[in-house]
Amino acid sequence: MATGALSGQPTRGHARGSSTVLVLLARSPCVAGWQDAVKPAKGGAAVEVEVVPGSRESRFPAGYNPWRGRIEAKVKAPPEEGKANAELCGLAADAFGLPHASVRVTSGQTSRRKTLHVALEPAAAIERLRGRMAAWERC
After folding, report:
1. What is the DSSP letter of 38?
2. Helices marked H in 33-96 — which ranges?
């Protein structure tokens, strides 16, 4: 019987050992490339976001999902009548140091995967998020 490469636990076949490795990689705190979620858009930047509505706490950014290429956000508001979207825009505006009217949802109004339009050039948007995203870049 083989053992898992990382856990030393007995495994039955190759697939189980592979999934263990993938799970450990998914939880790695060292993730670079979050800047790719910020793209040029007409009149500012488009920020790709994945939202968790109904969370215990509100936070933007709350991490980075490298497989989806999106910055993560958590909002307390439920996904009803645009409440979560409004809270997300307010959190993002605060993070970017902008008035709330300078951030809006341009796609994904009823989805967890959204695109925000931010009234900043992409380079400026990345620079303003850099300090908040530092926790997800450390190795």
Report:
1. E
2. 83-96
* pTM tops 0.70: yes
Q: How far is CA 89 from CA 23, 43, 73, 78, 109, in A?
A: 31, 17, 10, 14, 12
CA angle at residue 63 from 7 to 138, to 5 degrees? 65
Domains and CATH numbers, the chain: 1-30 (no CATH), 34-136 (3.30.1200.10)
Q: What is the pLDDT of residue 134?
A: 84
Adjacent-strand bridge partners of 33: none
Could you tell me the two tokens for 31? 């993730």
What pLDDT digit, counting tens, does each position of 4-63 carry? 444 455 444 444 554 444 333 444 444 568 999 999 999 999 999 999 999 999 999 999
Please name the residue that has the structure tokens 């009234």.
Answer: 119
Give the 3-state secondary structure of residue 133: helix
